[in-house]
Amino acid sequence: MEIEQTKIDILIVGAGPMGIATGIEAQKNNLSHLILEKGALVNSIYHFPKNMTFFSTSEKLEIGKVPFMSIHDKPTRDEALEYYRRVVEFWDLNLNYYEEVINIEKQEDGAYLVTSKKGTYLTQYVVIATGFYGNPNMLRIPGEDLDKVSHYYDNAHRFINQEVAVIGAGNSATQVALELHYKGAHVTMIVRDAAIGENVKYWIKPNIENRIKEGSIQAYFNAELTQIDEDTVTFTQDNEEITIDNDYVLALTGYQPDYEFLSQIGVVCDTSEKKIPDFKPESHQTNQEGIYIAGVVCGGLQTNTYSIENSMEHAKKIIQNILRQNS
Ligand SMILES: Cc1cc2nc3c(=O)[nH]c(=O)nc-3n(C[C@H](O)[C@H](O)[C@H](O)COP(=O)(O)OP(=O)(O)OC[C@H]3O[C@@H](n4cnc5c(N)ncnc54)[C@H](O)[C@@H]3O)c2cc1C
User: Rounded distance, CA 153 to CA 151, Å?
Assistant: First the structure.
């Protein structure tokens, strides 16, 4: 005998700040919800550098009117982890951890069947809040698969007195290069552009530029990494091939939404170089009726378009639209 599955009002994919914010809005409006998260709570923030400090002040990161106290004006990663844990507890959200969503299929009656690695769920609406931090932009060069190469940075300790190549010159790369330098690593930045990124925060930019100018951090601009070997890295600059000694490579060249997943569930993206997923700005509903998108994933390849600060309204717009459809 076939067992009838209970239908949830809203299934949310991803328990980052935006998945949590959407769960709270659903809870406030008496809509049943379930959040499925492939890792730990706020998994992206959990994988941020251990010593990182947010660029936003704590009140700008608040969700669901739960006050965010931090010792300094800008909170640390650890404070944010504890804060979002308290928010989920306070709002009594319905959340399954370590349960990756792998497919979403429309049923004849308009509902969706969501398949995770652990089970299936029937839901009327789906909200995709999957961020981008799980998908680094790959270099696609020989040697990228060596153990000494990483697309994430944790802390400086293991790099003391080591030759470290930092690839990229955005916010993450410049902060990491500085931290490594101050902790005694020998840092070389290999940068495709002609200068440090325009979007680098105003309190970091002069610091990194001055360290480069004084020679305490080596930097090669207009340079393209071409090969990674056990003890060296090779790059081209002005048509010249240069090989330098190297122990570790930190390829901090940005991240991108999981386009394979979006395409599999039928969400299309624009054809510009920004590859922005198709959604209506007033409701955040995608080209698939009943599937909504929230948070930084909405920015496509322009990953600095949205942050926690400026995407809080996504959750409200989505739930208001769902309430209108249900009325
Ligand atoms: C180093 C760094 C510092 C930052 N500092 C700030 C700051 O100071 N202020 C600010 O406003 N913003 C900041 N941001 C941006 C901010 O982190 C992001 O805006 C925020 O984490 C995005 O929230 P989100 O919920 O949209 O996505 P995420 O936090 O990335 O959450 C997405 C979640 O979805 C999960 N997921 C993905 N795919 C699946 C799947 N198939 N099934 C189930 N779960 C899935 C992921 O594991 C993850 O937990 C920073 C970003 C970085 C990288």
Answer: 7
Distances (CA, A) of 185 to 153, 173, 178, 196, 199: 14, 14, 10, 20, 25
The verdict on the CB of residue 100 being under 6 Å from ligand 1 is yes
Q: Give the tens place of pLDDT for each residue, 245-274.
A: 999 999 999 999 999 999 999 999 999 999
The answer to whether the CB of 81 falls within 8 A of the CB of 46 is yes
Nearest CA to ligand 1 atom 19: 307
Angle at CA of residue 81, ends 75 and 87, nearest 5°: 100
* C-beta separation of 35 from 325 below 8 A: no
Do the strands 101-106 and 112-116 form a parallel or antiparallel pair, or are they unpaired? antiparallel
Q: Is the CB of 197 under 6 A from ligand 1?
A: no
- Which phi-psi region, left, alpha or beta, contains residue 321 (left: φ > 0; alpha: ψ -120 to 50)? alpha
- The helix (run of H) or strand (run of E) holding residue 269 is none
pLDDT, tens digit, 9 for 90 and up, residues 275-286: 999 999 999 999
Burial-class residue 26 by CB neighbours within 10 Å (0-12, 13-18, 19+): buried
Tokens standing for 143?
């040697």
Q: Whose CA is nearest to atom 5 of ligand 1?
A: 54
8 A C-beta contact, residue 167 and residue 190: yes
The sign of the CA dihedral 272, 275, 277, 282 is negative
Quick check: pTM over 0.85? yes
According to DSSP H, which parts of the chain are helical?
17-28, 43-46, 77-90, 171-182, 205-214, 259-264, 308-326
Q: How far apart are CA 311 and CA 316, in angstroms?
A: 10
